[in-house]
Amino acid sequence: MRWSRFYIPTLKEAPSDAEVVSHKLLTRAGMVRKLTSGIYTYMPLGLRSISKAANIVRQEMDKAGANEVSMPMVQPADLWQESGRWDFYGPELLRIKDRHQRDYCLGPTHEEVITDVVRGEVRSYRQLPVNLYQIQTKFRDEIRPRFGLMRGREFIMKDAYSFDKDQAGLDASYQAMYDAYMAIFSRMALNFRPVEADSGSIGGSFSHEFMVLAETGEDTVVVCQACSYAANIERAEVLCTGDECDGLDTPVEEVSTPGKCTVEDVAAFLDVPQAAIIKTLIFVADGEPVAALVRGDRELNDVKLKNLLHADVLEMATPEQVQKWTEAPVGFAGPVGLKIARIYADNELRLATDWVVGANKGDTHLRHVSLKRDVKLSGFADLRLITEEDVCPKCGGAISLTRGIEVGHVFKLGTKYSEAMNCKYVDEQGKEQTMIMGCYGIGVSRVVASCIEQNHDKDGIKFPPPIAPFEALVLNLDIRTDDVCAKVDEIYELLKSQGVDVLVDDREERPGVKFKDADLIGIPMQLVVGGKGLARGIIEVKDRRTGEKSELPVEGFAEAFA
Ligand code: ATP
Ligand code: MG
Ligand code: MG
Ligand code: MG
């Protein structure tokens, strides 16, 4: 590929709304252009990176026995009504009407559609297991799209869905996907780790997230060095902290609860905008909110540090239990129920041991939270978020908190969708049974952004070869000199013949401009060919990632690359 004929509109300045480095560099390197909030055009260079990531995903999914399909992006409301999610999904679901006033949505995920496909086709246990996947555009009307490709409204996801005849089958399908994800993110040369996670609004009982470790990550990951336990702090239970009820002897005051508070109360209590509140568990004393466990966005996390408490959670209540205890009105989804073991304040154990339950509406809109059981609390005035120092884990290892970007998520769904949508098969005994499902997502466009978060310097991107748009860049410093051009062509052909993905900078630009752009777009190997070098019989080679420069003799060049 020749740069003069390949459209790479690099920029000196980053857009003013770009907060994180990947957003700045993706734009400056001419890889993406914003159309409107959270919606981007993938430019030629950006699309190449995304395609490289997608191909790694595709190869590993195929290897794991999944089959590629492509499902429609527009989905009829009926299916979502059948699964029960039409009312529960909340405003992230973009709803549209056709000319006959029929309801549709733009797919944020495809459980309903795939279940509809499989229930119409798969009848017998002999046809199971089935695992179908696609790499496709998703739409989620995110409350705060930001960080460029990291949290878009329109983005590319790989989503896979497994159907099994029994729990053992699901376990095997889940493990195969988990292993495939390990292979995928390793091949992409990302610094990542799998962590235990909540199942969120997709539902289901068991899940792992794959986190790319980066300061700009929106998630907090709790890691125990000694026992290799790692979890999203949303699930944070910090489960490896030891004795279940150490705190029971601590004197506590009885505080009577139940109370109800509105999102306005919570916002006022925390002194944050209402829109920032996503998921909250409020502790109420004497009718007043006294502390809150909040999952908000980034700014709110900082606020949370001032206000909050951290509780060690022993056990999650089932959604059914919570629904019953809170008497949450119909339409409430995502109930939370936590068995609190300990609450810390000021390094001191201030404790509660009882069920604390709440319910919130939808995924993003909190209407109210009610506490049904009495909670024993004391000294909440200065409650705050737990820090690394607060924990002395039972297993003897140190706990650390680190930031992560969720690039993948694997769920055991069980029969949530197959039950609601009547997705059945006939077993060996001729009896009708419900299929058992799993679902598995990877944010393909987010992967490229996360890769840049981990691989950059002040001059630009430092792509690892697997998701670099090209593997090598040949810089022609003297496009008007015939022997330089001839040498460039020779190198270009040689690399191509060896299967190297190569771009030649043959633009009419000064060397300074070429060097700057080369560092900005971050292609791993730079080969510099110029009249001065050729006169000395050398080509300069730079490894963009290490900055290491070396000289290769022109003569032995072909052999060096053989
Ligand atoms: P998040 O917690 O970041 O909102 P999620 O848990 O809602 O993500 P899933 O439903 O698990 O996302 O979707 C599977 C994958 O799709 C995620 O692991 C993530 O990599 C990617 N993804 C989700 N939302 C976005 C988005 N708005 N922009 C880009 N990628 C996304
Ligand atoms: Mg989300
Ligand atoms: Mg998530
Ligand atoms: Mg997720």
UniProtKB/TrEMBL annotation:
<dbReference type="InterPro" id="IPR006195">
    <property type="entry name" value="aa-tRNA-synth_II"/>
</dbReference>
<dbReference type="InterPro" id="IPR050062">
    <property type="entry name" value="Pro-tRNA_synthetase"/>
</dbReference>
<dbReference type="GO" id="GO:0002161">
    <property type="term" value="F:aminoacyl-tRNA deacylase activity"/>
</dbReference>
<dbReference type="GO" id="GO:0005829">
    <property type="term" value="C:cytosol"/>
</dbReference>
<keyword id="KW-0030">Aminoacyl-tRNA synthetase</keyword>
<dbReference type="InterPro" id="IPR036754">
    <property type="entry name" value="YbaK/aa-tRNA-synt-asso_dom_sf"/>
</dbReference>
<comment type="subunit">
    <text>Homodimer.</text>
</comment>
<dbReference type="InterPro" id="IPR004500">
    <property type="entry name" value="Pro-tRNA-synth_IIa_bac-type"/>
</dbReference>
<keyword id="KW-0436">Ligase</keyword>
<comment type="similarity">
    <text>Belongs to the class-II aminoacyl-tRNA synthetase family. ProS type 1 subfamily.</text>
</comment>
<keyword id="KW-0648">Protein biosynthesis</keyword>
<keyword id="KW-0067">ATP-binding</keyword>
<dbReference type="InterPro" id="IPR023717">
    <property type="entry name" value="Pro-tRNA-Synthase_IIa_type1"/>
</dbReference>
<protein>
    <recommendedName>
        <fullName>Proline--tRNA ligase</fullName>
        <ecNumber>6.1.1.15</ecNumber>
    </recommendedName>
</protein>
<comment type="function">
    <text>Catalyzes the attachment of proline to tRNA(Pro) in a two-step reaction: proline is first activated by ATP to form Pro-AMP and then transferred to the acceptor end of tRNA(Pro). As ProRS can inadvertently accommodate and process non-cognate amino acids such as alanine and cysteine, to avoid such errors it has two additional distinct editing activities against alanine. One activity is designated as 'pretransfer' editing and involves the tRNA(Pro)-independent hydrolysis of activated Ala-AMP.</text>
</comment>
<dbReference type="InterPro" id="IPR033730">
    <property type="entry name" value="ProRS_core_prok"/>
</dbReference>
<dbReference type="Pfam" id="PF03129">
    <property type="entry name" value="HGTP_anticodon"/>
</dbReference>
<dbReference type="GO" id="GO:0004827">
    <property type="term" value="F:proline-tRNA ligase activity"/>
</dbReference>
<dbReference type="GO" id="GO:0006433">
    <property type="term" value="P:prolyl-tRNA aminoacylation"/>
</dbReference>
<dbReference type="InterPro" id="IPR045864">
    <property type="entry name" value="aa-tRNA-synth_II/BPL/LPL"/>
</dbReference>
<dbReference type="Pfam" id="PF00587">
    <property type="entry name" value="tRNA-synt_2b"/>
</dbReference>
<dbReference type="InterPro" id="IPR044140">
    <property type="entry name" value="ProRS_anticodon_short"/>
</dbReference>
<dbReference type="InterPro" id="IPR036621">
    <property type="entry name" value="Anticodon-bd_dom_sf"/>
</dbReference>
<dbReference type="Pfam" id="PF04073">
    <property type="entry name" value="tRNA_edit"/>
</dbReference>
<keyword id="KW-0963">Cytoplasm</keyword>
<dbReference type="GO" id="GO:0005524">
    <property type="term" value="F:ATP binding"/>
</dbReference>
<dbReference type="InterPro" id="IPR004154">
    <property type="entry name" value="Anticodon-bd"/>
</dbReference>
<dbReference type="InterPro" id="IPR007214">
    <property type="entry name" value="YbaK/aa-tRNA-synth-assoc-dom"/>
</dbReference>
<keyword id="KW-0547">Nucleotide-binding</keyword>
<feature type="domain" description="Aminoacyl-transfer RNA synthetases class-II family profile">
    <location>
        <begin position="38"/>
        <end position="465"/>
    </location>
</feature>
<dbReference type="InterPro" id="IPR002314">
    <property type="entry name" value="aa-tRNA-synt_IIb"/>
</dbReference>
<dbReference type="InterPro" id="IPR002316">
    <property type="entry name" value="Pro-tRNA-ligase_IIa"/>
</dbReference>
